[in-house]
Amino acid sequence: MKGNFEFRTRKSNRSLWVIECIDPNCSWRLRASKIVPESTKFVIRKYVGVHSCSLLNRNANHRQATYVVIGEQVAPQYVGVEKGPGPKSVQTFARTKLRAQISYYKAWRGRKHAHTLIRGSPKQSFHILPSYFHMIEKLNPGTVTRIEVDGESRFKYLFLAFGVAIRGFRYMRKVVGIDGTFLKGQYRGVLLVATAQDGNGQCYPLAWGIVDSENEDAWTWFLTQLKEVIGDMDELALISDRAPSIKKAISTIFEKAHHRACAWHVAQNIKNNFKCADIMGSYWSTVNAYRCEDFAGYMKEISHRYPRVAEYLENEVGFEKWSRCHYPGLRYNITTTNMVESLNSMFINARDFPYVALLDVIQEKMSKWWNDRRIVAMAITAPLTPSRESEFRPRFAQSNGRHTLQLNPITYHVKGGELEGVVDIFNKTCTCKEFDIDKLPCVHAITAAHHAQVSVYNLVSPYYTKEYYVLAYGETIYPVGSQSQWDVPNEVATRVVLPREVRERKRGRPKTSRFPSVGEFRKQKNRCGKCGAYGHYKKKCNSQTGST
């Protein structure tokens, strides 16, 4: 192939393979046959390696440079990576390494074939899913997996929650974000995720699911499985966008937990429905207000400028759904689903993988997080996690110079600064409400603790401590290894899971970018009407093109 000489098959059967140069007058030929009749291996019996044909017979558009051959050659470049070379890079590889000129379409098919060689085919992924889940449960005790099929044994949903994450949830604040992101593979679907946030402000994935779409049935099934692994309690808060399917599923499944709206999605709805982006500063001040008095002041400003927005926030959404100070439970400093959106963006390149390959990427990423964060946690010398310690230290400096009046053995009145505060160091409260909501001592609480000769670290929620951080990542998530090493019972290996039926795709390049959410705007590059270049307008164009 590198010499651009093409060949043709003269004879081919189960025991013999004979090829010769495409020029019948050329002496180049190869003959191979089986070593023994029952063997699957061939041995070269005769080989004439010199071409006697004209150089005019050389062809860069090699007939043997099929997409299968191209895929086999570039496959090693996709091992251990999520994205790998694109079709243009595959074309360059074929031109420089194989001396073959191939079309973009053949490069695309070769890349797709390489993906199949490394990650398996989408269809085969469904067949091995029961065995894969069996090995995950075997190597990671306490892991919960579920596969839901329809009456024809066709795949509907799957659920995965690692035992390590389930046990570690006891060391997390009981605030869970849930969301979904669409998949781009042959069978499409939606990847659902539920995640908490550790004491250092990092994502702590609890459960994963793959469903057909974000509808009420799918969310009900997923949340039912989630409830089994994390429970249902009054202190639990579930944060999501305001999709009706999620809202109804949560109200059906969780009796004690509270559903809260993502403040960012509410903001996007306001910008889209009321066209008032200039009110966002006041809106976020309202969201983050700790005291109801401050909240009322910001809402008054919004009501004065945009009465319809104020009515929407109060009556349609509800203050308790998005406002920090009106929430009846513990929401801490978590007001959005950013922790879920961060997870979705991390797997953007793996969303076109077969399902098992996608789950492998998730397992690998979580294994790395657990190991890296365990190392960080063990190296901490301060009582709190790094992010909380950096947030805590400036408050010490601000507490200096304040006047403290003791009212009784546990209550102190702290004066000085813009706002006074009455602190109860036993019940861990302050009238500024920061201490109550974040469970991290405010400036007033730190001042009161100094006066009472109490360690301020004793007033911090245990969720922010090094001890909880170490315990959360104290265990290991193990991979399942290669399929040849699996030890699976026959009843599991023979379980039938067929691919779901998918609608026939439209002609043309498949879409890989999602449709924007409500109120979400994507920045587009400006194109100059004078020179045609991107990045500037016609009035600011310095090009002389088209000038007279």
Concise overview:
The chain is an alpha+beta fold. It has helices at residues 67-74, 87-97, 104-119, 122-139, 163-168, 216-230, 244-253, 263-274, 280-288, 292-305, 307-317, 319-322, 338-346, 355-379, 386-399, 434-438, 443-452, 466-472, 490-493, and strands spanning 7-12, 16-21, 29-34, 42-48, 144-149, 155-161, 175-182, 190-197, 203-211, 237-240, 258-261, 403-408, 411-415, 421-424, 429-430.
The 3D shape can be described as elongated
Instruction: Please give the order of strands in the largest beta sheet.
Output: 5-6-9-8-7-10-11
- Helical proportion? 25-40%
| Sheet with the most strands, sense and barrel status | 7 strands, mixed
| Number of H/I helices | 19
Distance between the termini: 54 Å
Structural class: alpha+beta
Mean pLDDT: 87
Q: Would you write up a description of this structure?
A:
It is a single chain. The protein is of the alpha+beta class and 548 residues long. The protein has helices at residues 67-74, 87-97, 104-119, 122-139, 163-168, 216-230, 244-253, 263-274, 280-288, 292-305, 307-317, 319-322, 338-346, 355-379, 386-399, 434-438, 443-452, 466-472, 490-493; strands spanning 7-12, 16-21, 29-34, 42-48, 144-149, 155-161, 175-182, 190-197, 203-211, 237-240, 258-261, 403-408, 411-415, 421-424, 429-430. A seven-stranded mixed beta sheet has the order 5-6-9-8-7-10-11, sandwiched between helices. A four-stranded antiparallel beta sheet has the order 1-2-3-4, with no helix packed on it. Strands 12-13-14-15 form a four-stranded antiparallel beta sheet. Strand 12 and strand 13 form a beta hairpin. The longest helix is centred in the last third of the chain and has 25 residues, at 355-379.
